[in-house]
Amino acid sequence: MKINKGVKVTLLLISIAWLLKILEWSLGVDLYHLGIYPRNRLGTFGILFHPFIHGGFKHLFSNTVSFAILCFSLYFFIPKVATKVLWKLSIYSGILVWIFARPSFHIGASGVIYGIASFLFFIGLFQKNPGSLIISLCIAVLNHGMLVGLVPQEDGISWESHLSGSIVGFFLAYYYRKVETTFSQQKQVEVDEDISYEGYRNLENEHFKYHYHPKDDN
């Protein structure tokens, strides 16, 4: 079920972004004004819409691949809070961009992408169990190049969105550090299977011992 939900949510969000870009291209319009414009009242609408608006097909394709992998991973490894984490990353990182970023339109899903990567990495560190640490290791290896995007580098790239998403991901990971992951759920299933297979549990200790007294039929 969690795999199906992860696939459905990921495909739905990606489809919305692609549909909007195709509409832009076919109608000859530009929806960049639906992005976040910091400290501008009208720019607050971008907090809701900015992840779906992209500067071009190259930008959209790049974000599609990264978002698909990370969004599916979020639903697979942390299914209980995946939806909450996803919308909180989008809203809270958007608010940070609106407050602190440069006065320009900030668009694209890269802030959410950085947020998911940060969340998965840090929740593995906070939980300190082997399964969660595997998540952190995989995220670190696959996305080590993302660190470059956290600092100013070239025009047209919203490093503020990247940094905001990473910060929000860190705090959400700490907030949800006690949530069940796929690995902890699997461990519980294995324990339950062991108990049902054995059919009993040994309750003996130094204060309590079983004593068998066979019935004397004579």
From TrEMBL:
It is a multi-pass membrane protein. Keywords: Hydrolase, Membrane, Protease, Transmembrane, Transmembrane helix. SUPFAM superfamilies: Rhomboid-like (SSF144091). Gene3D superfamilies: Rhomboid-like. GO terms for biological process: proteolysis. One of its GO terms (cellular component) is membrane. InterPro entries: Peptidase_S54_rhomboid_dom (IPR022764), Rhomboid-like_sf (IPR035952), Rhomboid_protease_S54 (IPR050925). The keyword Protease applies. The chain crosses the membrane at residues 60-78, 85-101, 107-126, 133-151, 157-176. One of its GO terms (molecular function) is serine-type endopeptidase activity. This is Rhomboid family intramembrane serine protease. PANTHER family: RHOMBOID PROTEASE, SLR1461 PROTEIN. It is found in: Membrane. It comes from the Bacteria.
